[in-house]
Amino acid sequence: MTDQERRHGRDESEEERADRMWGELIQEVRVAQTGVQILFGFLLTVVFQQKYADLADVDRTIYIVTVVLGAAATGALIGPVSLHRLVAGRKVKPQAVRLASGLTQIGLFLLLATMAAALVLILRVATGGSRMTWVVAAVVVWYLVCWYGLPLWSRRRHTSR
After folding, report:
1. Which of these, 1, 4, 23, lies nearest to 12 by C-alpha position?
2. Taking a C-beta distance cutoff of 8 angstroms, is the pair 100, 22 a contact?
3. How many C-beta neighbours within 10 Å does residue 154 have?
4. Which of 72, 8, 21 is nearest to 43 (CA)?
5. What does the radius of gyration of the chain's CA atoms come to, in whole angstroms?
6. CA 57 to CA 8: how far, in whole Å?
7. How far apart are CA 39 and CA 61, in angstroms?
8. Residue 28 contacts residue 80 (beta carbons within 8 Å)
């Protein structure tokens, strides 16, 4: 391998690359899983609070949508772990990495939606229903920049042709 090749890539087989990518993916998923599980656990307790009975119908609807989004995000972000367990030793790791990566992307999108919906609900309850749309929109834009904009910009800017 020349010095030029060493600088622009790794000398690894498809299986070695899949192993490395799997390890990286699981580390990334751990962060998102922790966040979504804490948020989902909190959401599950809200319905048992005394103040829940006082919520307006629209706020209850927002709550239900938020819980369903949280459940879906939890499923998608835990999915790669189950996938790995069920296909381990079957010599399909490259395909499993691609599938797990897709589940993770879906899970991150659902987590973004869950957090936005939770923020809408919290701000509505905290402010007595006043319109805080611009705050939620600003936070969603921030998530989009951090989770998608910067990574896509970096990928485009730094990927060699």
Report:
1. 1
2. yes
3. 10
4. 72
5. 20
6. 57
7. 18
8. no
Q: What is the dihedral of CA 68, 70, 76, 78, to 10 degrees?
A: -130
* % of residues, the chain, pLDDT over 90: 73
Answer yes or no: are the C-beta atoms of 33 and 80 closer than 8 Å.
no
Backbone angles phi, psi at 30, to 5 degrees: -55, -40
pLDDT at 161 over 70: no
pTM above 0.90, yes or no: no
Contact 25, 80 (CB under 8 A): yes
Distances (CA, A) of 116 to 64, 82, 121, 138, 143: 13, 27, 9, 10, 9
In order, the DSSP letters of 3-38 are HHHHHH-----HHHHHHHHHHHHHHHHHHHHHHHHH
Confidence of residue 136 (pLDDT cuts 50, 70, 90): very high
The set of residues, in sequence order, having a beta carbon less than 8 Å from that of 124 and lying 6+ positions away, is: 58, 59, 62, 130, 132
